[in-house]
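Q: Got a minute? One more chain.
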Amino acid sequence: MGEFMKKLSFTICVLALSSLLVQSMFLSTVNAQQYPEKPKIVVLASSIDFGLAIDFFRFLRDKGVELIHTDASNFDKYKEENFIIILGGPDAYEGVGEIVREYLTVEEQNWLRQEDNRKMFVKTKDRQLICIIAGSDRDMTKKAEEENQEKIVGAPIKAFPDFADIVRVTVAPQGLEIVVFTIQTADKIPIVPSTDPNFDLSYTIAFDLDKNSATGKTGPLYNDIGADKEISLEFKDLGWKSDYSWEISENTVAVKIPIDDLSLSFDWIVRSQRGNNMDIIPSEGHSSFRSPKLPPW
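A: Always. Here it is, folded:
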């Protein structure tokens, strides 16, 4: 009987341990589903600016953002991260100012040096977002943090597409009088106007109306088609602008152009540009359009 009780106790222990292991695995799976990876921001700041930004950091952490602090001496390890915040201006201590000067123009640097000036500068590179929050002195930098913290929170969560990658462009007549260019992009297009005054984005259609590459504009922006006419849809001054009718959905732009403003037969390329990011379709040469008004031969 004693041997039986020992075996029974051992079996119960094994079952209990198995149950705990299953529960642990289940909880790990649930937690992984309920708590996705936190958005991550690298913060470059001097020891002084870092110490003054405690409230700013607390706000971001309370919103679920993971912060990684680095100083100038270690910045090379993080400078390719997707989202970087730099606290301080062109004259910030401990090497931070030297890094800031790499991103800001001379005009922006001089503007920051003027008394009581402060701002968040947004710089982009490929899919990288760099926010420089600075003021004319430490107090103005701290004030700039307070004024821009709400904008910071949404950016890493939404990610930061470069809005430059065109997937395809289709060109089709709409009846006999209109030609529609539909541009499909790899990233979402901001349908609602951005509140960021530094945001810029443009889609440009260049036309070789006489189909003569020796006339008109040439060079890399035009794939040497000899552009006689350009039509743009631009995001400027916090809104979309174009001389022609346009429609925007989540990842397409459609521009409607009267054929009378073009010609019955033409070559074309489409260019998208945001800051230094540019994409041209077709990537080599050009495409052609022939109006249904013309005979098929």
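A: Residues 166-290 form a domain with the Immunoglobulin-like fold (CATH 2.60.40).
Q: Perfect, thanks.
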